[in-house]
Amino acid sequence: MNKIIFTILFCTASLYAGLVNAIAITVNDTPITLFDIDKEMETKRISKDQAVSQIIDKVLYEQEIEKNKISIDIFDVDNYIEKLASSNKMNVLDFKSLVRQQQDYTVFKKNIKKQLLHQKLITSIARGKLTVASEEDLNIYYENNKEQFKIADTIEVIAYVSKSKQALLELKKNPLLQNDKVMSQNITMKQKELNAQTKYILNTTSEKEFSAIFAQNKNYNMFFVQNKKDITSLEFKDVKEQIFTTIMQKREQDYLKNYFETLKITADIKILR
Question: What is the pLDDT of residues 39-59, one digit of tens each?
């Protein structure tokens, strides 16, 4: 009797496993299983229809990368990081050190790789099909979005210094915490007097927020930005390149969206269950 029950349970489990792994949809012969759909629904907390749509988009995207023979190697990633460091007026070692203090560096590089793959795909499929932003386009964008190009000449902060990174992390979670391992000082900083690292940290930290923790002078440091004053607008010539990049990225995104919507319509998609 026990043997029969075990056999029934085993068969039921095997049948369920087979059903979960069963192919639900094919996209140009690439299979999507019921498990893939369930996982997408659970991970992103979305409906089945939304999960199916997003997985199909992902499959089509990966197929286009393969079709266009696009790849990214470590040299591409390193070159991009060098450009990021240069744009922030920092040397590569200092920039990498700053990134490592703010986030998982492996994840940072992985995201750069994804970004470069995406950019190469856009370049491949949109080459010669996008209108290049003109000087007039750049001026119009600047005039309509001046808030984006404002910067504080004076920044009032509380500067925290400690030998213990954990002490600063605890302070960040509970600002009222008293800790003799942490020294603090109210400082008023001038934008023109800041080094590249400090400028980057403060300009990417909003008012009434803590900055990332960073290492400097053999200590761990952190700022709480109290106030940003003497706001001035960056001149057009100083943000011209940034505006060009922003406009072209938007045009690329719009083109790519339309491209994949068409691709989705013409793809060989079969619903099996």
Answer: 889 998 999 899 899 999 999
Q: Which residue has 């995104």 as its token pair?
A: 253
Residue 128 amino acid letter: G
**Whose structure tokens read 């045009």?**
251
For residues 107 and 100, the answer to whether their CB atoms sit within 8 Å is no
Six-digit token string for 179:
């800790």
| pLDDT over 50 (residue 6) | no
Q: How far is CA 197 from CA 222, 233, 238, in A?
A: 12, 21, 19
With b meaning 16 or more CB within 10 Å and e meaning fewer, what string describes 113-130?
A: beebbbbbbbeebeeeee
Cβ neighbours of 227 (radius 10 Å): 12
Radius of gyration of the chain (CA): 26
Residue 253 pLDDT > 90, yes or no? no
